[in-house]
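Example (one chain per record):
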Amino acid sequence: MNGHRHDTKIIKNPEKPVSAHASNHNLNFEDCHTVKGNFEAGEMSGVGYIEWPDLSWYEGEVYCGYRHGYGMFVSSCHKVAYLGQWRMGQKHGKGLILYDDQREDLYDGDWVAGERQGYGLRVYPNGGRYIGSWVNGKRVGPGTMVWPEAHLYRGEWRAGVMEGYGEYTWGAFLNKQLVFPVENIYRGSWINGKRNGPGVLEVGGAASIEGHWKDNLKHGAGSLICGNGHVLRSDNLFKDDHLVKMESSNLPKDTDEVKPSAEVKKPRKRFKKETKATSLQKTCAKKASPHDITIMSDKKDQQHKKTISSATSEDKYLLDTRSIPIHASCHKIDISYHLDRWESFGKVKSCNQSCEFYGKSYDIADSAQGLTYSGGCYVHDMEGVSEREYEEKWLDHAISANVLYLHQVYTRYSQVACDEQPNFSTALVRLMLWQLYRDCGIHTKGVSLVQLDKMLAKNPIALIEFPHHPLELLHFWQFLHSLLDVSWVLYASQGVGYLDTRGVLGSAYYKLVMDDIMPHAYNHTGSVLFGHRDVLPLTAVYLLYKSLGEPLSARQFLLYSCGLRNAPPLPESSPPCGSNAVAVGGELMYLPEGSSPHRPQEGPRLGVGPTQVVTCLSQLCPGIKGEQGIIVDMEYPLTFLEFYEVLLLVEEWGIRKEADRNTRLAAIAVQKLIYETTHGGATSLDMRSTSVVSSRGSRRKKKKDN
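Predicted structure:
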């Protein structure tokens, strides 16, 4: 640095040796160094202060003339300051370096022989940040990078660029609530800073592309999931980022372009730029717009831009976006699975006796009015239309007629665990869907929530990956498939429907919406997503649930709660207080913060016996009991939400029981004190109270001995 020996052996003057006993010397050497410190055999050791002619200075520990130990160095001409550990004149260990006086360009982390190596935080002058692993001054290994535009990459690095598996999110932001945002995100393989290899691209909840990438361009085999659940698969789906022209027979049934419905919220403003750059309408255009990703150069910590441009392919490979319903209305779902189930169940039944339909009685005379009985629902005959077409028409009508209200329900329940209204689009997860069904009392109608999960997973059109996972994201079209399953098992399969509506499936769907969802939605029950939402980390409770069995039966819970089987060991100390929140990429985390109300220190208390546990189970899961209140089904499966609710209820029961016992003992003591004060000395009341307590103690001792 300017000819001054800032980074070498700094204090040594063999021509002027200093006594080993000298201390606290203030010397001016011939090379104009200003020194304060301890010297031994002409070399500085201990703690000292050195100042160079350019006013750069060092203060800290020194060994044999080298900066060694802990110290601070400030370079006045380069405006660089380092505070941390040194080893023989080089930065080594933990240290913070500031490259400007505004603290906007810095590195705080591990050093080895003067190079950034280990784990550290790098803040770039343009606002970008990287935290993760370093090797020889470059980003290598796992790390997270945030660009000034709020784009975020979390994954593997090599030689300073993205390489390996990583997740790139456009328009990331900090979320401190238990709500899942709709994100634009790519998950997959990277090579030399570009998307290469297999990956999945999710575009703002409107579409999902799974396939292969080549130099940031979609290329080769893949599958495309549209906004309404339609799927397009091909071994040659993309070429140079453009859809390959396909035969009409390979396209989905709904091939008309449908404008997004008014009830579906558009992506929030922060997604606007990125959505344009990554939407399928752009990638299918003849000239794709370039998309810039700005990263930081490792060599001199300067900003470096790499432009990823989409190559233009020949027109013969292009496919008009109107050929695929990428942005079709989300309620235009494929209902063929539900129609097939209806047909296989037996769609037409003869009716030779009076039939009850939604509270009114009809008989065979109704046939004179052109009515027929079809699976329990009366419909008008339509000449020239097959029964399947008739069912399809009226089921589609029932879905369309209720889509605005149901989308509102979907949105509000996706935000049901929020204390503040989010300012971004949100997505529903299975945990919130369970809450909706419990609020509407679906679990009290002879069907368990686990059974509904299995029905939805059995539907190949619904594309369910993890049938019982509480945090699996469900798009609106998947939510509609679940409602169709509920309406089928509760009403359509039982020959019950809604009055003045047509079609078996459509009538049952109407009845579910009108009689179950509309009157009871938002009448929240339970406390897992409300009062006790942040009592424990949800991830920890879910791991406990999985370790006992997924899905867990009521019998298994009883055995666990009563200690009749080996359960996972409880932590020695309670976890820190905090709140459950969703990080970028949909990862659930637990943010430590202040105190949390009602924190259980143990599992179900020993004072709660099997009878009380079964009472708690039957209270939250009525399907366990028969018609006369007798326990008939201890194999009833519990979802994670029900497991957690029962666990909290058992805990509260134990606390309440212990509090009642303490209250009774306190009341006896107060009575004794009052009687002694008014009458003096021991009394028959004292003896009676004492005998009651002692007799209870003796009975407990006998039971314990037995």
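Caption: DSSP finds 14 helices and 32 strands in the chain.
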